[in-house]
């Protein structure tokens, strides 16, 4: 494999050649959703042209092709996560639904006063499902504090992991701060106390490959659309024994073994959690995205992404009044920032006029915004297809905006 050739990679992503407001698109909103390589579009197109039918019906050739493609995609995801078995790979609509499946499935284990440990830097999708389950069961959602730098406060973690802790649900990488949490160590401590561990991998998978067996987690959730695959599908990895013990999330076709009005029994894993006709073409598209990433040089790609963050950090000082929120030692290429005298949403609008896409607002992490005492931030989030020139373009635009409007 050659070293990382970003210009070659960019040619695989047609949308990156788009013009926006008369300017070449500079897409720095990868934390919200990533773009798709041609390989993904072609795989989905090929699926619809040559294979589409419903899956698991087995009565004709197209049905067999669709089932092969769909179950092959599950195996691709299993390999990506290094899970032990495809029985542990559940298709969901995304990270949000995956966490809801787990929260609902673990509810029968919770008693009044039990504690679900989350962190102050969680996305709402790793807070609200737990609050809903807490409401039903009398359990409590307890947040681990973060430090001003945006790292998990380990003293807070150590003092809160206690007798009543039943579940630890924590993000692998923060969507606002970019912080990579020391999850393997946290999981080890939690498991030693019999605590069930759930990782939100939505912002980790676009940057590195998680190994669920090495991490030792019980559950791992991610979304395809943040991993260069299509929208509408995501993955829940779950430890087989726990999945066996959990009730299904939804009822319907596909998830049953036998139905009668006297008694209905559930299908085997993973189908027990997959009621109804699944997102078949999307599963094929996600597998194509993973295969595409596997053809790239991972180490070179990770180094190139880090170089983007290093360059961005160097340029912060060139914009008067600019400050970064989230300066963890281990962080992914995500930069949340504010500029004195400018509202984040105005920064977003002014950058868009220059063809530069960033996200502004609370990033579905209101408790974290409250912690920093800001209504929101502007956030530039990078992917491997971004260039150093694009980082320079962002900062040139920020300098201009600061000069004219702050
Ligand atoms: N967790 C994190 C850390 C995220 O960044 C996101 C998406 N912004 C989600 C969960 C939710 O993902 P989805 O909307 O695809 O379900």
Sequence-ordered SSE layout with sheet pairings:
Blueprint: H1 6-11, E1 19-20, E2 23-24, E3 26-27, H2 38-50, H3 61-81, E4 89-92, H4 95-106, E5 115-119, H5 128-137, E6 140-144, H6 154-160, E7 165-171, H7 183-192, E8 196-200, H8 212-215, E9 219-223, E10 234-238, H9 240-245, E11 256-258, E12 265-266, H10 280-294, H11 298-315, E13 322-325, E14 334-339, H12 344-353, E15 356-357, E16 359-361, H13 366-372, E17 377-381, H14 388-405
Parallel strand pairs: 3-15, 5-6, 5-7, 7-8, 8-9
Antiparallel strand pairs: 1-2, 4-10, 9-10, 11-12, 13-14, 14-17, 16-17
Bound molecules: 4'-deoxy-4'-aminopyridoxal-5'-phosphate (PMP).
4'-deoxy-4'-aminopyridoxal-5'-phosphate (PMP) binds at residues 94-96, 123, 125-126, 171, 175, 200, 202-203, 223, 364.
CATH superfamily of the largest domain: Type I PLP-dependent aspartate aminotransferase-like (Major domain)
CATH class designation of the largest domain: Alpha Beta
Helix count, per DSSP? 14
Distance between the termini: 47 Å
What is the 3D shape? globular
CATH architecture label of the largest domain? 3-Layer(aba) Sandwich
Radius of gyration: 22 Å
Bound molecules: 4'-deoxy-4'-aminopyridoxal-5'-phosphate
Poorly predicted runs:
none
Helix vs. strand class: alpha/beta
Q: What percentage of amino acids are in beta strands? A: 15-25%
Family: Belongs to the class-V pyridoxal-phosphate-dependent aminotransferase family. Csd subfamily.
Function: Catalyzes the removal of elemental sulfur and selenium atoms from L-cysteine, L-cystine, L-selenocysteine, and L-selenocystine to produce L-alanine.
EC number: 2.8.1.7
Domain Aminotransferase class V: 26-394
């Amino acid at each position: 494999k050659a070293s990382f050739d970003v210009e070659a990679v960019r040619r695989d992503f047609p949308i990156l050649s788009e013009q926006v407001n008369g300017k070449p698109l500079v897409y720095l909103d990868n934390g919200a959703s990533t773009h798709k390589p041609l390989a993904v579009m072609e795989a989905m197109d090929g699926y619809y042209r040559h294979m589409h039918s419903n899956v698991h019906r087995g009565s004709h050739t197209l049905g067999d092709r669709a089932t092969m493609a769909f179950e092959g995609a599950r195996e691709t995801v299993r390999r990506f996560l290094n899970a032990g078995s495809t029985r542990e790979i559940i298709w969901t609509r995304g990270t949000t639904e995956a966490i809801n499946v787990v929260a609902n499935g673990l509810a029968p284990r919770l008693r009044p006063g039990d504690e679900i440990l989350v962190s102050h830097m969680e996305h709402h999708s790793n807070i609200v499902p737990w609050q809903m389950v807490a409401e039903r069961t009398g359990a409590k959602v307890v947040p681990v504090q973060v430090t001003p730098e945006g790292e998990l406060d380990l003293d807070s973690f150590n003092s809160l992991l206690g007798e009543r802790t039943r579940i630890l649900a924590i993000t692998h990488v923060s969507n606002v701060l970019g912080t990579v949490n020391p999850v393997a160590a946290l999981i080890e401590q939690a498991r030693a106390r019999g605590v069930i561990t759930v990782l939100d991998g939505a912002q980790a998978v676009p940057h590195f490959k998680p190994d669920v067996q090495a991490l030792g987690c019980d559950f791992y959730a991610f979304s395809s659309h943040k991993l260069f695959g299509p929208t509408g599908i995501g993955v829940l990895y779950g430890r087989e024994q726990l999945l066996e013990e959990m009730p299904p999330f939804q009822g319907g076709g596909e998830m049953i073994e036998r139905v009668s009005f006297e008694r209905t029994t559930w299908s085997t894993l993973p189908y027990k959690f997959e009621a109804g006709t699944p997102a078949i073409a999307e599963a094929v598209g996600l597998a194509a995205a993973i295969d595409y990433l596997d053809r790239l040089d991972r180490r070179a790609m990770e180094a190139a992404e880090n170089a983007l963050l290093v360059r961005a950090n160097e340029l912060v000082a060139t914009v008067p009044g600019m400050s970064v929120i989230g300066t963890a030692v281990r962080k992914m290429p995500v930069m949340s920032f504010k500029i004195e005298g400018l509202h984040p949403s105005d920064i977003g609008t002014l950058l868009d006029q220059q063809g530069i896409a960033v996200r502004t607002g609370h990033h579905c992490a209101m408790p974290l915004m409250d912690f920093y005492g800001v209504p929101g931030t502007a956030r530039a989030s990078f992917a491997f297809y971004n260039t150093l020139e694009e980082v320079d373009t962002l900062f040139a635009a920020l300098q201009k905006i600061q000069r004219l409007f702050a």
